[in-house]
Amino acid sequence: MTVREYLNSVFIRSPGEIPALTGFRGVAIFMLYYVHLFRNYEAQIIEKNFFLSTFLHNGSASIDMFFVLSGFLIAGPLLKELRKSGTINLKAFYIKRSLRIFPPYYIFLALQFFLIIPFFARGGGEFGEMLMSTRWRIVFDLTYISNYYPGTLFHGWSLSLEEQFYMIFPLFLMLVFHRIPERFQLPSLWVLVLLPMAYRLYILPAIAAQPHPSGPYQAWIYFPFHGHIDSVIIGIITAYIYQFRRHWVDYVYDRPALKSALLGASVILFFAYSIFVFEYLPTIEGMVVRFPVFSILSALIMILSIPEGGWVNRVLSWKWFIPAAKLSYCAYIIHIVVMIPLSRKIFGGGELHYYHIFLWFIPIGLVIFFFAYLFHLVAERPFMIWKDRYTDMLKARRAAA
User: Any keyword Transmembrane helix (predicted)?
Assistant: First the structure.
């Protein structure tokens, strides 16, 4: 591999990559930018508007989009392998996941512990003392349990939840799912979707009784594995249908009018829910069914946009989503430490309007991508090359067997 190929890899579509899914990931990361930018400056916005605030807050649906995509992309190959061979190569799966996930995450945690936190603590005062006194909580980040015990990476809860999914899911497939008769496999996955919903419904009265429901909602529902895993399971269900009930999918693909109608309705409902349903209100639509609603709509948009043709496919297949998608993991990890100081330079402490968020989240996002690109070259790309070589070695072994 030449230096030029190494540097340009994020701008080139990988073999077998589905263009629409690349765009789907790119849209999700920009949604993440505007929700975190808004939440940092919501208090400075004058002339509050419920619908605009609700829409910007619901940028957090980007996390459910990522969860659906992870469930789809991880479950698909595993389900296919299990159906074909009756087992899963756990060693290969965990090695590939480790090379993909661990290096950027742990490298950033080291930078945060030794450089970033001390740098932001230099100003002293109560904030600086708090940063240094809570630095020990990095142990929860290191062990991927920060969705239950807050660590130093405040948005690391989702990475913890996904890592718990990676650890548990292959074992679940081999030890439990494989033993379920085929006709009951899909219904069993839907039962797993209902379990977190039942938990959220059970805990809702306790959250509603709190003077400030948003905090308990995040701690008891939003962050924990058992409160939010249904978004990932919906991605798994989507993979199962795409793999083993493909005639259902092809039935829609073969009828362009039906596909367009379903896709258009899914997009409209996604935006409608984003505008009218406020996440932090202790209601059934806000705290109980919100995750599956966004996840099912995301799954429909994702699957229905895969075939070429149609405006959604053309938008999501736009070539500039390629680097956005390839850098999304590194961008997710580092975005807060870039966004906060940069946005403070832009916004300061003065009064803001909603248009400031809409105007600046893309330029700020592009700056985040620049730093994510540099971080990717050092902390992610070398290990991705090792992962690809390991995958090629496994393919060669299977071909020779």
Answer: yes
Asked if 156 and 116 count as a contact pair (C-beta separation under 8 A), the reply is: no
126 band by pLDDT with thresholds 50, 70 and 90? confident
DSSP 173-237: HHHTGGGS-HHHHHHHHHHHHHHHHHHHHHHHHHHHTSSSTHHHHIIIIISSHHHHTHHHHHHHH
Residue 343: CB partners within 8 Å, gap ≥ 6?
37, 40, 41, 360, 364
144: left (phi over 0), alpha (psi -120 to 50) or beta: left
Q: Tokens 């736009």 correspond to what residue? A: 318
**What are the C-alpha distances in Å from 370 to residues 187, 239, 328, 360?**
44, 33, 11, 16
Using CA atoms, how far residue 97 sits from 31, 64, 137, 235, 280, in Å, is: 25, 20, 24, 18, 34
Per-residue pLDDT of 368-401, as tens digits, reads 999 999 999 999 999 999 999 998 898 888 888 6
The whole-angstrom separation of Cα 139 and Cα 204 is 30
CB atoms within 10 A of CB 241: 17
What pTM was estimated for this model as a whole? 0.96
